[in-house]
Specification:
single chain; 134 residues; alpha/beta; Nucleotidyltransferase, domain 5; five-stranded mixed β-sheet; two-stranded parallel ribbon; 3 helices; 21% helix
Length: 134
Amino acid sequence: MKIAAVSENGRTIAQHFGRAPYYVVVTVEEGVIVLQETRAKVGHNDFAGGTDPGPGAKHRAMADTIGDCAALLAGGMGSGAFAALQAAGIEPVLTDERDIEAAAVRYARGELPNLAARLHQGRGERHHRHEHDD
């Protein structure tokens, strides 16, 4: 099973989906990580200064890179990104677990809770820094 996590440094799960520059994609088989790769991720800043394609297109572009993954792990995200991932067949999982490898293995085992309170709601959603941001 392939599981993606957003990251700013390749080791820990980023607290904001839209701002993270990387995906770390972990392949877990029988509870063991057998492969790990880093992929560039389109983010909010990639759309700055140009023609704005709209939030739906932005979120689809962010999901395209991980279309082969079952889930996306993040510390938080907006409702538009959450819905776009679901529409792409990717389960968005919001977590307070910081370690990518530990979270991926816990997810594969069905032991990683999805913390819905970390979802930022609707238009005008307030993107804020979480107390444990890097």
